[in-house]
What does this fold into?
Amino acid sequence: MRALENRKSLPHSAENPFEDVKPGDYFYNAVLWAREKGITSGTYGSHFSPGETCNRAQAVTFIWRAEDKPAGTGTSFGDVAPGSYYEEAVKWAVASGVTSGTGNAAFSPYDTCTRGQIVTFLYRDMGG
It folds into this structure.
């Protein structure tokens, strides 16, 4: 699991493309690290939006990218748009047991991802 081997890495570059992430912010190194590893490119333009909540699509996509975008071999859900940025991440998450959706053949990509859901995704991804 790529995420484990990169766990304590610091960003190699001091380049910060995000206007809303400042040196001294507790998440500064984490955001630069995640950008450097291809886990995020921000929310729009030159923004990361650190105070915003994540939705389920974003959370699963972060984990999928941290795992180096493994092939998505699982089936998707009726509410996962074909060609969406998160489609392959959801397919991978289903195939690898990270998620089975929210019920009634739905993934609910735009629902807020609770802290409980996020740690469950991580736990399942790490082999728990």
User: Anything to note?
Assistant: DSSP finds five helices and no strands in the chain. The helical segments are 2-5, 28-36, 56-66, 87-95, 115-125. The mean pLDDT is 89. The radius of gyration is 15 Å.
